[in-house]
Amino acid sequence: MTAALSLTLLGLMLVAAVLLVLAPLRGRVSDPDALERGQLEQERDRLFGELRSLPDAQEGRRPELEGRAARLLRQLDGMPPAPKGSLPAPLLWGGLALAAVLVAVGAFTFIPRWQLGGLNGSEAQTVKTALQLPGLAQRARQSGRVRDELAWGKAAFDAGQYDQAASAYAAALKQDPRQPEALRRLGIILLTRDDQNGQTAKPNDQAFLLIRTAAQLAPNDPESQLLLGFALSRYGQDTLALTALERYRSLNPQGRDADDMIAALRARQNTSDPGLSTFAANCASCHGAGGNGGIGPSLRMAGLTRDTLAAVVRNGKGTMPAFPQITGRNLTALLALVEGWQK
């Protein structure tokens, strides 16, 4: 939702609140009998008061006063009913002030939630995290504590604010040089920054050392293995990279962040076998590196004929996309590979 739409919604809420509060004023109707009715009501109240306080010495006047009061009541009953009046001024302005407060509160609570409601879970969390960044940064700078620096760094990293994340993690490492999260994330920030700037990184540069040290300090942390595999693949160490990425998969069976990288690495390693290289480059990310299944079904248990396999590759099926680019020798080798697995 755009800012303009949010402001429009806020304006409509304010107008609706004002109209609701001022509705009694719009319904006000003139009362031609108001003066007479008021006088009769005053006289009625006076007579009732006089009857209540009538002394014993004047009891002889009671029948007269009661008769006058009865005639006044009949006269009042015979008059047309008074139209409904407007709200008293204090209540009216109080209601208007309350409506304004409710609209203001809604502007800072309901509308932001509605805006987040149009995002998926990951996007909404990113926006929320970004909104927290100024407060987290201020707290970290004021306290200087490692945990506050890490909280700021994590929020900035998750929100894609990598310059802030690098500053926070660097500050944390000054106090605790063996903090795995700060080491690996600062390392990957430096590594990708070098790539973006077109610089050639070496396996023993600062970024790689930070990531490798984090993996050594926290070998059972999935992210440590994932980032180590990413760094190793950047330097052409495919076998070590695959080992780290497979370790990541074993530590985090639900994680899919390494699938594409593993498929690409296996494709690079299997250039001598067109079937394996084609499978690794196009199929392994869904069907598993060995065809045993992953996001997609196991190809070893599929029981499909060669013609059916070829048709599925060319045209796709269900959620599987088509791969019309796989043709000729590569297609023949791929079909032979999968057919051999099924046998």
UniProtKB/TrEMBL annotation:
<dbReference type="InterPro" id="IPR036909">
    <property type="entry name" value="Cyt_c-like_dom_sf"/>
</dbReference>
<dbReference type="InterPro" id="IPR019734">
    <property type="entry name" value="TPR_rpt"/>
</dbReference>
<keyword id="KW-0472">Membrane</keyword>
<dbReference type="GO" id="GO:0009055">
    <property type="term" value="F:electron transfer activity"/>
</dbReference>
<dbReference type="GO" id="GO:0020037">
    <property type="term" value="F:heme binding"/>
</dbReference>
<keyword id="KW-0479">Metal-binding</keyword>
<keyword id="KW-0813">Transport</keyword>
<feature type="transmembrane region" description="Helical">
    <location>
        <begin position="91"/>
        <end position="111"/>
    </location>
</feature>
<keyword id="KW-0802">TPR repeat</keyword>
<feature type="domain" description="Cytochrome c">
    <location>
        <begin position="270"/>
        <end position="342"/>
    </location>
</feature>
<dbReference type="InterPro" id="IPR011990">
    <property type="entry name" value="TPR-like_helical_dom_sf"/>
</dbReference>
<keyword id="KW-0812">Transmembrane</keyword>
<keyword id="KW-1133">Transmembrane helix</keyword>
<dbReference type="Pfam" id="PF13432">
    <property type="entry name" value="TPR_16"/>
</dbReference>
<keyword id="KW-0349">Heme</keyword>
<dbReference type="InterPro" id="IPR009056">
    <property type="entry name" value="Cyt_c-like_dom"/>
</dbReference>
<keyword id="KW-0249">Electron transport</keyword>
<keyword id="KW-0408">Iron</keyword>
<feature type="repeat" description="TPR">
    <location>
        <begin position="146"/>
        <end position="179"/>
    </location>
</feature>
<dbReference type="Pfam" id="PF13442">
    <property type="entry name" value="Cytochrome_CBB3"/>
</dbReference>
<dbReference type="InterPro" id="IPR051811">
    <property type="entry name" value="Cytochrome_c550/c551-like"/>
</dbReference>
<dbReference type="GO" id="GO:0046872">
    <property type="term" value="F:metal ion binding"/>
</dbReference>
<protein>
    <submittedName>
        <fullName>Cytochrome c family protein</fullName>
    </submittedName>
</protein>
